[in-house]
Design a protein that fits this description.
single chain; 765 residues; OB fold (Dihydrolipoamide Acetyltransferase, E2P); Serine Threonine Protein Phosphatase 5, Tetratricopeptide repeat; four-stranded mixed beta sheet; binds S-adenosylmethionine
């Protein structure tokens, strides 16, 4: 089964299929597979319609913002080197292409004869050596800069092209996998004779190319600059070391701007040739690229080399210091979370901090494939992992009108704008940085078939399979707020926190458990995973992909629909063995309690799930602090009676040491209700019940409020229950126990928020 949801996937649900969306799919659906286009427009018509679109877009770009990004029917990328797609035998002319067909083993060579314009992809018109003309739609390439990667007069090769009917007598060659399109250097022997002009560029020198590159750079046409510098390097004499070094360094600078960090580092190093000042700059560029690749040790070495050549340069020194700080974070896991938090704004969501993962190791689990294990004894509340996102789009509003939603034609699923931004960002980052492919592509992609060639360099670029990347995205990404603290504030003020979607590759190896031993929180680009209890070295680390709902079968449906598994944790096994009759009775009684509560005031979670606001997207927001009205004692007593009956439906001894999730919300409600009545003994009773029902069963057995060894869940509701228990204990004159409860609440807060920020204010609130 394919995995078609994200960790914490609730965010997708508002985007159900609609008739309109279905109509759009059928409009672009294959109609005439294997045929030549029946009414193909003429060359003049194609060029004229393209020119009209370019003009309209230039005049009012806002009218042409495409709000949907379609993933077409899945097909594999080309993995055949251009030289094996032998031009003479395998060349296919535009005029021979048949519709809705992937022309396997074939290649189209062409020249771009129009300027590009952007809609969801980049559109140009191309002409082949026979003079055949067609539109070319290129998706998933660098499309966010003002600059464009393709320009009029470029020579291109389209490997194994797909020819598409767009409806309305509009046809195009469509390229989805970026590695299927090659932009050829002017001198490439692959360019068919007829496409080049006989005397083309004969008198051009390397110097001319370098100057053209400089001009393009100043005009911020970075792709053009890259092309010109590459031409200059090809044309320059190998003897002219100073010239070549200069151009390599310039090209390194452009590559850095385009976030092509592998190429930046190699160009910068290729430019080193014995000139102190220039070499220092080159080492600095190489260092900046290595730093961006999170290769801090390598970055440090480059910065040291730069500083040695120019000890007075303050940027070199500053970057060396930054590298040392990152290395210290990566080695020791010591972060200044307060400082990190203070730099976070809606515009600055990417923190300049390293990943700490020294305490975990990836290994093979008994049943769930790979998993993450504790590399040492870890204490309750300790940081287990602090990971910088591989890619995190700054798209925190699901309804951001300026962003496209992602529509996957293969499974009919629609994902919010942040998912579309994440997919595009992942594709770009991997295409631009071949060295990042191997680790990323090793992540779980469900059942998506792999060719084994993904990510390897063919024709100088890594093979990019956008459908594999999408499968990895949906299986491994997390929805994340800008700061977990804001989710808690929003939860209690009943507003909705903005979430983005991002991918943290190390955290992606954590498997799910309904009763986990870690919990995650978010601080900008960083995911903070902390131990919810003491964990011995070697134990598998788990967290909740989504907060488990109270009913076993509903829970399994979520896991199966989203990730294709049935959970085999002790809680799920116990509930499964109860059978549908007993589970049905529990659910019925839960619904009865809910209806009493809804009628008489307050409310239980509409989602029917224990609220875990840091993990869910607002589910359970109705529960906490929801008792705005004063509830009559008679109502409270009747809820108490029903709750007692519900507890009997969790048979002993099976559930003695397990959570009783149907009882969570009633006990939260009762705790709140008695607290509103200022009844400390009852508040304490139900605060302890909340803890017990979340699985902290030692509390029930009178073993005090030490949760360090408890196998129960830690979430904001347990923290809240601990806080209320502390208050009640103090009111009852049990000061020592009150201090213990508050200490536990504080540690729980650190787990839920990721650090101590906001604790004091919340405790007072
Ligand atoms: C984010 S990945 C976790 C790492 C994965 N086990 C691997 O080998 O790469 C999610 C996938 O792990 C597996 N998984 C995670 N938790 C599981 C559980 N409780 N029971 C069964 N499979 C689980 C499922 O195949 C799920 O799609």
């Amino acid at each position: 089964m394919s995995k078609d949801a994200e960790l914490d996937g609730e965010e997708e649900r508002p985007y159900e299929d609609t008739a309109d969306r279905q109509k759009e799919v059928s409009r672009v659906a294959p109609a005439v597979e294997g045929q030549k286009p029946p009414n193909k427009p003429s060359r003049e018509e194609i060029l004229s319609s393209h020119a009209t679109n370019c003009k309209a877009l230039a005049e009012s770009p806002e009218a042409y913002v495409i709000r949907q990004y379609f993933l077409p029917k899945a097909y594999p990328p080309s993995t055949v080197p251009l030289k094996e797609l032998e031009p003479v035998k395998q060349l296919i002319h535009v005029g021979d292409l048949t519709l809705e067909t992937h022309h396997r083993g074939k290649v189209v060579f062409g020249k771009v004869i129009s300027s590009p314009y952007r809609s969801t992809g980049v559109i140009v018109v191309i002409e082949d050596e026979e003079g055949d003309v067609e539109k070319l739609s290129i998706y998933n390439r660098d499309d966010t800069t003002l600059d464009c990667f393709i320009a009029e007069n470029d020579f291109i090769a389209i490997k194994e092209p797909f020819y598409k009917y767009n409806g309305d007598e509009d046809y195009a060659i469509r390229v989805d996998h970026p590695s299927d399109l090659l932009i050829l250097e002017e001198g490439s022997s692959f360019i068919p004779e007829k496409l080049r002009k006989p005397d083309q560029n004969l008198s051009r020198t390397a110097s001319d190319d370098k100057q053209a590159g400089d001009k393009a750079y100043l005009a911020k046409q970075y792709f053009r600059a890259l092309e010109c510098y590459s031409q200059a390097i090809s044309r320059a004499s190998s003897e002219d070391k100073a010239f070549r070094s200069d151009v390599y360094r310039k090209r390194a600078g452009v590559n850095l701007l385009l976030q092509r960090f592998d190429a930046t580092e190699s160009d910068a190093l290729a430019s080193v040739f014995g000139d102190g000042t220039a070499d220092a700059k080159a080492h600095h560029l190489a260092g900046r690229a290595a730093y961006e690749l999170e290769e801090y040790e390598r970055g440090k070495k480059h910065f040291e080399a730069a500083s040695k050549l120019n000890p007075k340069n303050s940027s070199f020194k500053k970057d060396l210091q930054r590298s040392n700080s990152r290395l210290a974070e990566a080695e020791g896991g010591s972060y200044d979370f307060k400082a990190m938090s203070s730099t976070l704004t809606n515009r600055n969501v990417h923190l300049d901090n390293a990943t700490y993962s020294a305490d975990v190791k990836v290994g093979i689990t008994e049943y769930y494939g790979r998993g993450t294990f504790a590399a040492r004894d870890i204490k309750a509340g300790e940081l287990v992992l602090c990971e910088k996102a591989f890619y995190l789009p700054n798209t925190y509003s699901a309804n951001d009108e300026s962003e496209r939603v992602l529509f996957n034609v293969n499974n009919g699923r629609v994902f919010p704008a942040s998912s579309a931004a994440l997919l595009r960002g992942l594709i770009r980052k991997l295409y631009n940085n071949p060295s990042l492919n191997a680790d990323f592509l090793a992540l779980d992609a469900g059942n998506y078939p792999r060719s084994g060639k993904e990510g390897i360099l063919i024709d100088g670029v890594p093979v990019i399979d956008i459908f594999l990347i999408e499968s990895i995205r949906v299986t491994n990404c997390f929805n994340a707020p800008l700061h977990s603290l804001t989710v808690i504030h929003n939860l209690f003020s009943k507003s909705t926190a903005g979430l983005t979607t991002a991918l943290w590759p190390r955290s992606a190896f954590l498997n799910h458990s309904c009763t986990p031993n870690t919990a995650r929180a978010f601080l900008g680009s960083h995911q903070l995973v902390r131990a919810t209890r003491d964990i011995p070295a070697g134990e598998e680390l788990t967290h909740q992909y989504v907060s488990p709902g109270p009913d076993w079968s509903q829970r399994q449906k979520v896991y199966a629909d989203s990730w294709g598994f049935e959970c085999g944790c002790t809680l799920c096994l116990a509930e499964k063995s109860d059978g549908p009759t007993l589970r049905g009775k529990r659910d019925q009684l839960f619904q009865t309690i809910k209806s009493v509560v809804m009628r008489k005031g307050g409310g239980l979670s509409a989602s029917n799930a224990p609220s875990n606001p840091l993990h869910a997207t607002g589910t359970g927001a109705d529960t906490a602090g929801s008792l705005s009205s004063f509830i009559p004692t008679s109502t409270i007593r009747s809820v108490e009676r029903l709750t007692t009956q519900l507890a009997l439906l969790y048979p002993s001894p099976k559930f003695d040491a397990l959570p009783r999730l149907c009882l969570v919300h009633p006990s939260i409600w009762l705790c709140d209700a008695w607290r509103a009545h200022r009844h400390p003994a009852k508040t304490l009773k139900y605060a302890l019940e909340v803890l017990r029902n979340f699985g902290h069963t030692d509390v029930e057995r009178g073993r005090g409020l030490d949760l360090r060894k408890s196998k129960g869940m830690i979430n904001i509701e347990t923290v809240r229950a601990l806080r209320f228990a502390g208050e009640a204990l103090r009111a009852l004159g049990r000061e020592a126990e009150a201090v213990r409860a508050e200490g536990e609440a504080r540690r729980g807060w650190g787990v839920c928020v990721g650090w101590e920020g906001g604790w004091k204010e919340w405790r007072r609130g």
